[in-house]
UniProtKB/TrEMBL annotation:
Keywords: Lipid-binding
Species of the source: Corynebacterium crudilactis
SUPFAM superfamilies named in the record: DAK1/DegV-like
Superkingdom assignment: Bacteria
UniProt GO MF annotations: lipid binding
Name under which the protein is recorded: Fatty acid-binding protein DegV
InterPro entries found in the cross-reference section: DegV, DegV_C, DegV_domain_contain
């Protein structure tokens, strides 16, 4: 049996893609307290149970687990604890330093290799390589939710509110940092296209555009990126997972990109591929 691939729901993998590639998705937790919502990571017991089920399916070939950045959730440390339950390194946990479809893309690449009979080490290596070639930006239509979560600095929040700016954030080393400040959505999208073009360096790109209550805006950004990025690039529109939407707020649009993608391991073969 092939190596089994597990992600948590913060990877934003669409269900049809997860099913096609036989990737197991474990849901993170959203907790409602009246009008307030919060999120919670997965426990080591939950993850150990998930890993055990997949080992039962895959046998000695092992499990590769990819989870949200350890800087953003307790899930990674729980995963390391859970993996230690199993002997002989049968469960490998990737330190992704990322979230969203950057993690999803790494899982897709590993799953395609697993289907071809690759070893656990080979699947781990392609996942790590994909993550190294990834960037994730997120356009925040408003900053109320992310300010409450503490995932941006007080100074950034105050300046953005005072100047009525709509920031573009970038994930770097597992943490969120300010990449650009814009006044309008159209200027933000133009900046995202510019950032992707510069980073692509004329090479094909895999792009996943995430949205939270902003489907039309996400489609608009997708059209701009498709017109601007090199031939051979591929595109996917996904929903931002509810656990991420709690912190990004309505109207948020993310861009997760894998650069220098000269191999077909991320192509879905579905409409929308350029």
């Amino acid at each position: 049996m092939p190596v089994r691939i597990i992600v948590d729901s913060s990877s934003c993998l669409p269900l049809p893609v997860a099913e096609e590639l036989d990737i197991t998705v474990v849901n993170l937790h959203v907790m409602n307290d009246g009008e307030d919502r919060s999120t919670s990571g997965l426990s080591s017991l939950e993850l150990a149970a998930s890993y055990a089920r997949q080992l039962e399916r895959g046998g000695d070939d092992g499990v590769l687990a990819l989870h949200i950045s350890k800087e953003l959730s307790s899930t990674w440390s729980s995963a390391v604890t859970a993996a230690a339950v199993f002997d002989d390194g049968l469960v490998r946990v990737v330190d992704t330093c990322s979230l969203g479809m950057a993690v999803g893309a790494a899982a897709m690449a590993a799953a395609r290799m697993a289907k071809d009979g690759a070893s656990l080490q080979d699947c781990y290596d392609i996942a790590v390589d994909t993550l190294k070639r990834s960037e994730t930006w997120i356009y925040l239509h408003r900053i109320d939710e992310i300010r409450k979560s503490g995932r941006i600095s007080t100074a950034t929040a105050v300046v953005s509110t005072a100047l009525a700016t709509r920031p573009i954030m970038r994930f770097n080393g597992g943490r969120m940092e300010l990449a650009a400040k814009t006044r309008t959505q159209s200027k933000a999208f133009a900046k995202l296209v510019e950032l992707a073009q510069i980073r692509a360096e004329g090479q094909p790109v895999f792009i996943a555009i995430g949205q939270n209550e902003a489907r039309e805006a996400a489609k608009q950004l997708g059209d701009l990126l498709e017109k601007s990025l090199p031939e051979g690039s591929s595109f996917m529109l996904v929903d931002i997972d509810p656990t991420l939407a709690v912190h990004s707020g309505p109207g948020a649009v993310s861009v997760s990109a894998v650069f220098a993608n000269e191999t077909p391991e991320l192509s879905t073969g579905k409409p929308g591929t350029k």
